[in-house]
Input
Amino acid sequence: MTAAGKLSTYQAKRDFSRTAEPRGDTGADAEQRLRFVIQKHDATRLHYDLRLELNGVFKSWAVTRGPSLNPQDKRLAVEVEDHPLDYGDFEGTIPKGEYGGGTVMIWDRGYWWPEGMTAEEGLASGDLKFTLDGERLHGSWVLVRMKHDRTGGKRVNWLLIKHKDRFAVDGDGSALLAEDRSVASGRSMAEIAAGKGPAPKPFMVQKAAK
Output
């Protein structure tokens, strides 16, 4: 399936005459390295959206309590629809009443790569091990698919877990979530919601210097 075909669910959920979210028509610059983005999303419930570039789209999960640097913490990550790559540059407020209505911040971004097997194999097996090289998150992680949706619905639930390495911590693994500044614009959630401050510096649609 082409990247455009993978975005049919994403596009069907949104009214692009109301939301500034990208349709995914313009695409993003090609990169030899796979990119990732984590967006802090103050919707019905505050959560963090993990997006991993793969085969022309972002594979995406809503991490309900945000990532933790403590390997003892297992964070619920609900698989959601594929997003376009240019979504990685989106920062702003989705209008109330629209799907995912609320303020979105680019909380982290950088590069990622799978460990031990291809990303496709990891996703198919329900055990995707990978490394992050971002501005805030680093080191080895794993997404483990759960067998059943405990709510009885049709969600595909995973667990996001930090592996033990030099970037892991033994104490409060959520302390890093107190960082309330966009890595793309330097703005706080309040400033983004108010429409104040500079626009985010592009990462997906314009190659970023590394």
Observations:
- The longest strand covers residues 102-114.
